[in-house]
Amino acid sequence: MGLSPRPETSRVTVDPQSQESWVTTRLDFLVNWGRANSLWPMPFGTACCAIEFMASAASKFDLARFGMERMSFSPRQADVLICAGRVPFKLAPVIRRIWQQMPQPKWCISMGACASSGGMFDNYAVVQGIDTIIPVDVYVPGCPPRPEGLMYGIMMLQEKVKKERMADTSLRNEMEPDPNSQLYISPRLIDELSEPFGNSINQTRSGL
Amino acid sequence: MSATFIPIVAGHAEGVDAAAPVTPKNVPHHGGPANPSAQALMEKFGSAVHRVDVVWGETTVIVERARVNEIVRWLHDEPSQQYDFCADVTAVEFRDLELPIEVVWHLRSLPYRRFLRLKALIPKGQPLAVPSVWDIHKSVDWMERECYDMFGITFTGHPDLRRILMWEQYKEGFPLRKDFPLRGRFSRSEQLRQALSQNPEAKYSMQELSIADAFEDLPRDMRQRLSAGEKVGE
Questions:
Q1: Is A117 on the interface with B (CB under 8 A)?
Q2: Peptide bond just before B131 cis, omega within 30 deg
Q3: Chain A contacts in chain B segment 167-196 (CB below 8 A)
């Protein structure tokens, strides 16, 4: 590093009688503790979930308690992409680009039914779950979720971050989309994920 | 300041002794007094005015398709009409495919406090084209683009008729048409593939950005991209 060693500080001594405080821990724990408690969110709000997200960030629910007081409106300085709201197909390359611009380590929370599965918008214009475009760590259900729900998701993400091992480098592997189709999972899997369910099966009026 | 600022006061053309507007009550579904502009249109354009309907107190004038621009121009310029605001341009297709597609203009006269709905019918088998009224009301620019995007109706005379809601390379057709399936024509993976292959930064035209003057100051790669045209991707 170009720094000359300083003999008087490079040696560690332990004097049990002194009043100096000592903690020994794993590096994993220390790094993950720091990461989990300073997640900077990149809000990607497109619909009513963003209103709940704003309420979560405001004074009553106060995301700052989780170390998230700084909304990062630049993906370059963000850790968590919070996708709040439905994503139309026209926005698919945009959210893909934002995800690719975020530096590792990065995580993604899919907030609400529309972002997670397309919700009630099972139509020609809406992506059926953003996990078909970018990898997602935590899904928060609800239409829209209450701020408590989002916070529960954030706490789940914090637990997930705290369980990571630095030895496992595959966690930080960047997603590689297929160069021809720009999809990162197989088309068959996307069709399967986007399969309609529940009442919406009966709502297609094609073949008029 | 060069020109004197004249505020537009709704209803000023009716004179100071005109009654203040009241919310109408017990409006019949069909019938009732028509907008006086409908009578004026019939006298002026004769056979180009096909029918006048009054539904829920609002007047609908069904006019000949080819003369829409001329009629809207007259309604805009005529001092006794002064329809100076076009609130909406849209279209209606019915589930009964034998019925014609209707193109609808919502016109409002602020000086006379009048509302008039113009309709032009496009019968089955005819080309989906109506004259644009962009040269009269600049407000219809994006509305006509949206109508083109959703229904595929060509507004002849529109300066920049491109898709506005769907991306420009959208291949599945016109989503609000009745023969369009709710989920689109392609599979989800194919829709996603086509959506991801668009380049979101290549969709700005020179007019939108107003950068034509600053063209020489742009970065070189952007200059190349813009001078080569915006059609990038699929």
A1: no
A2: no
A3: 167, 172, 175, 178-184, 187-193, 195-196
- Classified as helix, coil or strand, A186 is coil
Q: Considering only CA atoms, which of B89, B39, B92 is closest in space to residue B69? A: B89
Check: CB of residue B7 under 8 Å from CB of residue B111.
no
A135 pLDDT above the threshold of 50 = yes
B130 pLDDT band, cuts 50/70/90, is very high
Q: Are strands B85-92 and B101-109 parallel, antiparallel or unpaired?
A: antiparallel
Note whether residue B213 is domain-resident: no
Residue in B95, B166, B189 nearest the CB of A191: B189
- Please give, rounded to a whole number of angstroms, the shortest distance from the CA of B4 to a CA of chain A: 43
Q: Rounded to an integer, what distance in angstroms lies between the CA atom of residue B137 and that of residue B158? A: 11
Contact B188 A128 (CB under 8 A): yes
CB contact under 8 A, B191 and A93: no
Q: What is the reported pTM?
A: 0.78
- Domain count across chain B: 1
Which strand (E) or helix (H) includes residue A93?
A: helix A92-101
Q: What kind of architecture, by CATH, is found in domain A26-193? A: 3-Layer(aba) Sandwich (3.40)
Contact B153, B130 (CB under 8 A): yes
Q: Which domain holds residue B73?
A: 22-164
B183–A123: do the CB atoms touch at under 8 Å?
yes
